[in-house]
Design goal:
single chain; alpha/beta; Rossmann fold; 2 domains; 39% helix; 20% strand; globular; binds adenosine-5'-diphosphate; binds alpha-D-glucopyranose
Length: 485
């Protein structure tokens, strides 16, 4: 098989800049694809953290005016990744979150900051850079959606394009009068172009104009073709069903490896699940929960948003406590949820604990120390925390939606008989069903031999990128062959 070159275009990448699972995927997939004979270079904005991490940067292109100021494209390595970085101070030289200021207000020039990312991606796609000539340009989410449009309207021979949806809830819509300022031609304004409900739709453009569309689980690929799940794009996605597919995310099993993880209190693996125990004590201590090896610890590591369904946890908290359980929550996000969990922690000291914020090391300890990891999402394109939970033997308690449905096998009686259950799955996402799921988990936990079996099943699940990387590689090769090599 000949080597294939792919340019991945993305607005965040682990471990340099991360706000969610998108960064994890962008950081881990290139390494997994290398095993498949695919060479990936990743194009990212030059946020301060990215520029600081870049080893031996070389200037490969200079751009006189990139949406209001000069820019350079740098090439170099960082965190084991081959990167192209857009060095454009007027767009990216800002501290903190890549999308908004310290008060959570989106940067007003976001359409230009991410159009610039797409524009440079298209330029590298057509002209190459530093001897790298991608046969495929793979974009992720709305921030990179205009790439396919710039490639198409350029008119020159272009590489194949793949757009991956990580979350349809974020679509990047901007006023139509920005069309000329975004260097889009007049004829881009139309249903086959960037027009979307009378705005410029960045994600819509990517989904309409890319050769292939993927999303991060097969079930989500089906859900987004229905009215509600499609969030305004179901018509477009149904119309393009022939080129839409779902490829499950994996996790980086070197970053998430309980046998060597430096961020946890005691190492363990599927052959020695009982060595896991000191992590529970360490978690209880670190979070201020009562030290009690018998109490079932229900963990959460999540953005606190409507998507994640954590209002159900807040409302159903008494059921967790009634079964003798404890809640250990790590998260950040919506004000009302933050306030709610803080109040619950104050009302139940030693039994409910929350850490509000982003804490990579505590995330690992929750996975290693909790008995159950809850992801009761209303929708979930894939979800990564339930995959980490499988690997760390925290039994996932999840809703049957999107990637949760595709990755967790409900431990019902038949599944237990067949020796296949890995978690507790419930539907629909309603607090009554959540309460019943908590009770079911507690009942399973009472029989320690069943629980041990569940943990073993969970920990033996292959959550690596191997299978899915070969699916992406096959998709790229198929696309390249279709476009004439
Ligand atoms: P999403 O991208 O929708 O937020 P995912 O489950 O795909 O959900 O990915 C979330 C990623 O962010 C995981 O790697 C998870 O461990 C991490 N994460 C989420 N919240 C926190 C937090 N408060 N502290 C540390 N890591 C977090
Ligand atoms: C999004 C989704 C999440 C998915 C992640 C990575 O943030 O909400 O389900 O796992 O992207 O694909």
């Amino acid at each position: 098989m000949s080597a294939l070159e792919v340019l991945s275009v993305v607005s965040e990448v682990y471990p340099l800049v991360k706000t969610g699972g998108l960064a994890d995927v962008a950081g881990a997939l290139p390494g997994a694809l290398a095993q498949e004979g695919v060479t990936v270079r990743t194009l990212v904005p030059g946020y301060p953290a990215v520029k600081a991490a870049l080893e031996k940067p070389k200037v490969v292109t200079k751009i006189g005016d990139l949406f209001g100021g000069p820019a350079k494209v740098l090439a170099g390595r960082a965190a084991g990744l081959d990167l192209f970085v857009i060095d454009a101070a007027h767009l990216y030289d800002r501290p903190g979150n890549p999308y908004h200021d310290g008060d959570g207000v989106d940067w007003p020039d976001n359409p230009f900051r991410f159009a610039a990312l797409a524009k440079v991606a298209a330029q590298i796609g057509i002209e190459g850079a530093a001897g790298f000539r991608p046969q495929v340009v793979h974009t992720h989410d709305w921030q990179t959606g205009l790439t396919a449009a710039y490639l198409e309207y350029d008119g020159r021979k272009r590489p194949g394009t793949v757009a991956t949806i990580h979350n349809l809830a974020f679509q990047g819509q901007y006023p139509k009068d920005l069309l000329p300022a975004l260097h889009l031609p007049d004829h881009a304004w139309g249903v086959d172009g960037v027009e979307y409900y009378d705005t410029i739709g960045f994600l819509k453009a990517g989904l309409r104009m890319s050769d292939r569309v993927t999303t991060v689980s097969p079930t989500y690929a089906a859900e987004i073709r229905s009215g509600e799940g499609g969030m305004g794009l179901s018509g477009l996605l149904s119309g393009r069903a022939g080129v839409v597919s779902g490829i499950l995310n994996g996790i980086d099993i070197d970053v998430w490896n309980p046998a060597i993880d430096p961020l946890i209190a005691a190492h363990f693996d599927a052959a020695s699940p009982s060595s896991r125990r000191p992590n529970k004590t360490a978690l209880q201590r670190r979070m201020g929960l009562r030290i009690d090896s018998k109490a079932m610890v229900f963990g959460v590591v999540s953005r606190l948003s409507w998507q994640k369904g954590l209002d159900m946890v807040l409302e159903g908290i008494e059921t967790i406590l009634a079964s003798g359980g404890q809640l250990a929550l790590l998260g950040s996000g919506d004000r009302d949820l933050v306030d709610g969990f803080r109040r619950a922690a104050a009302a139940h000291p030693g039994r409910v604990a929350c850490v509000i914020g982003y804490d990579e090391s505590l995330a690992h300890l929750v996975q290693a120390g909790a008995d159950v990891l809850m992801v009761p999402s209303r929708f979930e394109p894939c979800g990564l925390t339930q995959l980490c939970a499988l690997r760390y033997g925290a039994i996932p308690l999840v809703t049957r939606v999107g990637g949760l449905a595709d990755t967790i096998i409900d431990a019902n009686e038949m599944a237990l008989d067949a020796g296949t259950g890995t978690g507790v799955v419930f539907t629909p996402p309603h607090v009554d069903m959540f309460r019943a799921a908590v009770q079911r988990a507690a009942a399973l936990h009472e029989d320690q031999s069943i629980w041990r079996r569940l943990m073993k099943n969970a920990m033996r699940t292959d959550v690596s990128w191997a299978r899915s990387a070969s699916r992406y590689a096959a998709l790229y090769r198929d696309l390249v062959a279709e476009r004439g090599g």
